[in-house]
Amino acid sequence: MRAHETTIPGVLRIELDVQPNDDGWFKENFHRAKLEQAGVPALDAVQHNVSYFAEAGIIRGIHAEPWDKYLSPSAGRVFVALVDLRSGETFGAVETFELEAGQALYVPRGCGNSFCTLTPHTVYNFLVNEYWSPERITVDLFDPELEIDWPFPRRQLSWTERDAGNPTLAEIRMLTEAGSRPA
């Protein structure tokens, strides 16, 4: 396991060792001691979520929850767009990644996570260090200020009603500067 810094402070891109075998492959998706040795902060995972997506072009996010996340696909590939929503000089910074079974991301609390399935039959794992709650900051997936170059044209993407109503980064910025906590 090897961890690499990204342009967003605290976000780490992780290379996992995938061992081919006669039946397919094996990987240690999460091994706390090896990850810590590679420079990943200790993640005391309390919940492991797995999502299955039958089609390519399914998009979710942008959500910044009050917990740290460890993300990795088990099958298929995903395009991930992260947005720093923590107050400070990197507020609004965006970085994108393509992940397959041999990669993972460590995403600290306050960083918005979104993804788009690149292949049918994608299985995506999320380990978190706090139990799920509805508390989060959300941002419009298609906010022009973010300039996220999604891998499919918008008309080919499928997203939830809930994500369709997310505020823009400018609206989040105004709430933050006014001292309010965005919902």
What's the SSE blueprint?
Blueprint: E1 2-5, E2 12-15, E3 18-21, E4 24-27, H1 32-37, E5 47-53, E6 59-64, E7 69-75, E8 78-84, E9 94-99, E10 103-107, E11 111-117, E12 122-128, E13 137-138, H2 161-164, H3 169-177
Antiparallel strand pairs: 1-2, 2-10, 3-4, 5-12, 6-11, 6-13, 7-10, 7-12, 8-9, 8-11
Summarize the entry for a quick read.
With 183 residues, the protein is mainly beta. 10% of the residues lie in helices and 38% in strands. It has a domain at 44-99 and 106-177: Jelly Rolls.
Give short descriptive properties of this protein:
183 residues; mainly beta; 6-stranded antiparallel β-sheet; 10% helix; Jelly Rolls; 3 helices
How does this model look, in words?
The protein has helices spanning 32-37, 161-164, 169-177, and strands at 2-5, 12-15, 18-21, 24-27, 47-53, 59-64, 69-75, 78-84, 94-99, 103-107, 111-117, 122-128, 137-138. The protein is mainly β and 183 residues long. It is built from three helices and 13 strands; from the N terminus they run ββββαβββββββββαα. The longest helix has 9 residues, at 169-177. The strands form three sheets. It has a six-stranded antiparallel sheet, with no helix packed on it. A five-stranded antiparallel sheet has the order 9-8-11-6-13, with no helix packed on it. A hairpin with a 2-residue loop joins β3 and β4 (24-27). The model has no long low-confidence stretch (mean pLDDT 94). This is dTDP-4-keto-6-deoxy-D-glucose epimerase. It holds the Pfam family dTDP_sugar_isom. Belongs to the dTDP-4-dehydrorhamnose 3,5-epimerase family. It comes from Kribbella capetownensis.
